[in-house]
Amino acid sequence: MRVKEAVNYGLDGELAEILTARGVMGFNAVQSTAVKLGVFRGRNVMICSPSASGKSLLGEIACINSALSGGKAAYIVPLKSVAYEKYDDMVEICRTRSLRIVMSTGDFYRFPSDILDADVMILTYEKFDSMTRQIPAVLDMLRTVVIDEVHMLSDPERGPRLEGILTRLRLRARKNDIQMIPLSASIGNPHEIASWLNCALIESHARMVPLEISITVTRQKNAFIKEFLRERCSEEGQVLVFVARRRDAESLAEKLGEILKDHVDDEVGMRIRKILDNATGGDRSSLARRAFRVAPSGVCFHHAGLSLNLRRAIELAFRKRLLKVLVCTTTLSAGINMPARYVILRDLVVVRRTPDGMEYRRLGANTIFQIVGRAGRPGFDSSGHAYILVYTDQERELLRSVLFRDGRQTPRYENVESQLENGDLMEELLLVAIYDSEGATIDDLVEFLRSTLWGRKRPAIEISRKILLTGKTRFLDWDESHEISGEVVITKADGRRIEGIVNGRMCTISRNGAWCECSEFSKMRRTTPCRHLVGLAMYVAENLRDRIGIVLDGLGMGSALDFLMRGGLVKQIEDADITAFEVTRFGELVIKLYLRPRTAVAMHALSSRFSGDVYDFIRRFCGFLSEEGRRVPPQLHAALLEVYEGRISVEEIPVRFEIPPGDFEELIDYIRWSLHALRAISELCGYLNTSHLAGELLEVLSGGSGRD
Q: What is the three-state SS of 437-449?
């Protein structure tokens, strides 16, 4: 279908002319199907097709077209880097038609002053979620929402919040007629997701650029990569190499640079240096210096430890075809349009940094297809080639059976499953549901959860068990055989677990369950608490009241609504004819601060513990960050003190304390957000000293003056 023909299906005529002038002459098969289904006339359309099939471009056009008809449009993405790219793609056309476009990816409590006046918004999932809580009127203005990478529903960390976004949009769409356009390259159950979102489904496995995937057996993976590059030094096609660890990306890039440096002329090297210089300014970190040394050879590395500006500069140099090879981690696997003819997947695991160290996890089929799909980009290459490296023939055959349905390389994608039951985001979703309803009964909450992907196939009784009040805030009716003799010694008690020795037996209660080393617990098959766990629970109930929620959750005695009531976020409406609930002032503040309820309750407890000593405040605050699951460098306490005392600036921390700039950027954003929230909660609860300390440190970290 030619672009001008799409005017008959709802495309704005002037927009069609602009697209044609920019070289978009026609729509491919996937895009044409969406146009005929009514994507430019407000119909919900879900597109599941491979990378580089044109679905993102169609989503961008749909946003602009919707804004031209008078509605507000949002394009929401999982990553900041993708948001920057979408903004760059759309800004010129928007300005040509006098549309106001805004991008916002940063603080969850700050928004551009003109966001309500914007016609097109480019936002991360979390920023969109936060905005609709703080400025609910936006939902009444929205006409179109494009959801990029909707398969992120399966992500354990970000999936539940995305599911909450989509559930609220679904319910709001019934009365506001909001159009949803979910996009994905890898979903094994697209019909189920499309049905849930009430979308017409377009599913295609066809690629504009053919892709050949080879599973290659080699005992020496780096040697294979080096030889591969030697054979193709003189070719124009570029190469993306994916590895598991950051340090592997750096070292392999340096080794490949030695091979390629004689094939890159000085002018190209100077252009690469200029791009990196212009973008990074005064980045003096060891990572930046290492990247500057290797990049002029035509090879560089890319991972989340680099600063955002440096990552963007490296991506730009690669798009301009100045960099021949990019060695990267999975941070580059999705969303960003990177022109590569070849992709080599060296490692089949991903490394995730946790507070307890490094966690290795095997890549799933969907992630592998996201990675290999980077090969063969329209307008750059006529073909794409991907090489997945394995050590043995057995590993190759096993991987082939996991990835493909037949010998023709038809992808076997994994199903997208709800992650709402994992973690504590069920409580957050219920809190927002109660806030939106301004008085919700149990039946209302059950019906709301039945609208989620998690709840659509579950009976009402099972959903009720998740949210009903248990009333068990004390430990009663224990059998006399559970009488405890001997003392209880607490060995660890933080926001996630309680460990202790009860009558000589080691016990642990965490939010995920309980354990005791005694034979009694083993014989019970861990279905009921033993006498030692009961003793630990009773001790906590009497002596560590602020940790009681961990015990209730760990022993299966709590529920989502029970926690919200105990935490002071929700209360029962007085004088109501039926049992209904509403959020408290504290609960409303938590929603607008974009905090998880458990984090907010922990902040409330933290607020009451300070006497006025800033050194103690910073020490306890760093401990809180660690308890909340953040990976806190051991030198952070000293770094914050030096900034507070005016001895160094915030920008000097990564170099002074050798913290990777990318990690520090993410961490300092979280610290500022946490301090803002802690200040607000402390002020609401009357802990003015804590509010003052949090505000003072926030001002310093946000560019204010340090202490003399």
A: HCCEEHHHHHHHH
410-411-412 Cα angle (round to 5): 120
Q: Is 356 left (phi over 0), alpha (psi -120 to 50) or beta?
A: alpha
Specify the 3-state DSSP secondary structure of 420: coil
- Within 10 Å of residue 477's Cβ, how many Cβ atoms? 5
Q: Please, are residues 185 and 34 in contact by the beta-carbon 8 Å criterion?
A: no
Q: Do the Cβ atoms of 657 and 638 come closer than 8 Å?
A: yes
Find the helix packing angle between 442-450 and 425-437, rounded to 10°. 120
Query: Checking DSSP bridges between strand 299-302 and strand 239-242, what pairing results, if any?
Result: unpaired
Enumerate residues 6+ apart whose C-beta is below 8 A from 493.
Answer: 499, 544, 547
Q: What is the distance between the alpha carbons of residues 63 and 544, in angstroms, rounded to a whole number?
A: 52
d(CA 586, CA 686): 12
Task: Please state, rounded to an integer, the average pLDDT across all residues of the chain.
Answer: 86
Q: Which residues, including other chains, have CB under 8 Å from residue 392's CB and lie 6 or more apart?
A: 217
Q: How far apart are CA 4 and CA 27, in angstroms?
A: 10
Q: Which two three-digit tokens encode residue 14?
A: 């002037």
Maximum separation of any 2 CA atoms in the chain, in Å: 84
CA distance 419 to 157: 8
pLDDT tens per residue across span 171-210: 887 666 899 999 998 899 999 999 999 999 999 988 888 8
Question: Is the pLDDT reported for residue 34 higher than 90?
Answer: yes
Q: Distance from CA of residue 530 to its chain's centroid?
A: 39
Of 330, 332, 335, which Cα lies nearest the Cα of 350? Answer: 330
pLDDT digits (tens, 9 = 90+) for 77-116: 998 888 988 999 999 999 999 999 999 887 666 676 677 8
| Residues 501/518, Cβ–Cβ less than 8 Å | no
**Can you tell me the distance from the alpha carbon of 569 to that of 278, in angstroms, rounded to the nearest whole number?**
48
Helix (H) or strand (E) holding 9: none
For 278-394, strand residue ranges (E) read 299-302, 325-328, 342-345, 349-354, 357-362, 384-390
Q: Over the stretch 519-553, which tens digit does the pLDDT of each residue have?
A: 777 655 445 678 888 888 888 877 887 787 788 77
DSSP 374: T
Output 631 or 685, whichever has higher pLDDT: 685
Which residues in 445-559 belong to E strands, given as ranges? 488-493, 497-502, 505-510, 513-516
pLDDT tens digits, one per residue of 135-175? 888 888 899 999 999 999 998 888 999 999 999 999 887 66
- CATH number of the structural domain 3-203: 3.40.50.300
Tens digits of residue pLDDT in 280-298: 766 778 888 899 999 999 9
* Degrees, nearest 5: CA angle 353-675-638: 65
Assess whether the region 3-203 and the region 211-403 belong to the same CATH fold: yes
pLDDT at 478 over 60: no
**Cβ neighbours of 564 (radius 10 Å):** 26
> Stretch 692-702: mean pLDDT, rounded?
92
- Smallest Cα–Cα separation from 145: which of 74, 211, 236? 74
Q: Please check whether residue 413 is in contact with residue 365, taking contact to mean a CB–CB distance below 8 angstroms.
A: yes
Q: How far apart are CA 180 and CA 194, in angstroms?
A: 10
Domain ranges of the chain: 3-203, 211-403, 425-572, 595-701
Q: Which CATH class is domain 211-403?
A: alpha beta
Q: What is the pTM of this model?
A: 0.84
d(CA 372, CA 212): 9
Mean pLDDT comparison of 356-370, 567-581, 664-678, highest-scoring range: 664-678
Please tell me the predicted confidence (pLDDT) of residue 434: 93
Asked if residues 678 and 686 have their Cβ atoms less than 8 Å apart, the reply is: no
